[in-house]
UniProtKB/TrEMBL annotation:
GO CC list: proton-transporting ATP synthase complex
Coiled coil start-end: none
Primary localisation category: membrane
Membrane topology note: Peripheral membrane protein
UniProt xrefs under PANTHER family: ATP SYNTHASE GAMMA CHAIN, ATP SYNTHASE SUBUNIT GAMMA, MITOCHONDRIAL
Family as reported in the entry's similarity comment: Belongs to the ATPase gamma chain family.
Keyword terms: ATP synthesis, CF(1), Hydrogen ion transport, Ion transport, Membrane, Transport
Keyword tRNA processing attributed: no
Domain of life: Bacteria
Record's protein name: ATP synthase gamma chain
InterPro entries: ATP_synth_F1_ATPase_gsu, ATP_synth_F1_gsu
Species the sequence originates in: Pandoraea terrigena
Amino acid sequence: MGVRQGDIAMSSKLSEIESRTASATQLQAVIGAMRGIAAAREREAQARIAGIRSAAATVGEAIGRALTAAPSGYAPDPAPAQGSVRILIVVCTEQGFVGGFNDRLLARAEQLKGTAPSEIFVVGTRGAMLAQERALHCAWTVPMASHADDAMRVAGQIADAVFARFRDRASSQVWLVYATPGPALAESIVTRRLVPFEFARFRRASSRQPPLFNLPLDQLLTGLTERYVYLELCEGLMQSFASENAARLAAMLAASHHVKDQLAVLTRESRIVRQSEITAEIAELATAGRARTSPYTQT
């Protein structure tokens, strides 16, 4: 009876191990699929960055040509108004499985914020939730792009919110905080100042005849700078989207290694239990055989 109870216990344990093995195998398949999606999305985002930069270069050239026609002493940058605040745009993620990606971005935003009057715009639902947990007030939030083609639409929403904020209340600076793909996330966080706009980087001497304008210079430069800021937002979001998926790919790779180790342990446990079952069966057969051949066995 003792042997039979042991058989039942071992059989139950083997069934549990097989169930856990099946679950781990299914999890491994899901992780593999998520790794494939993350890798494809990262490549997709990287492929679009060159086009965004090319468009920004074209707008930058137009700004430079417009500035050649500006009168001497022309200053397109207005002085910040008294009591103005800074806007910090933090590009986080819409989905999880990215490790400490959002934590480090928000920590950089807090560091940049300091004690100066600031408003934080958070891109990405996960980032907004984490900001709330960190007691970091968000003045405005928007969902992050879920695929590369959606980044331009989100950039447009951010630009509209920023320019609307300028109309409602004076703002001294606008900063964009985002991550770029790199070997270490802490080393790949970028803080880019969008406003005040650095017109000096587009100024260039030209021997050509100044271009002819159909719009007043201020109006033309305002439209060009808004377009350039929009393209900078597009690049920041695309870089962050690529970095997000690189972080997710790394997280899935680590999870895959963990599941493989777990499957190896379960396989080893399964072999041990099966060996114990075989040993118990051999012992039971040997005992039964000795009982049949014993001279003291009653016939």
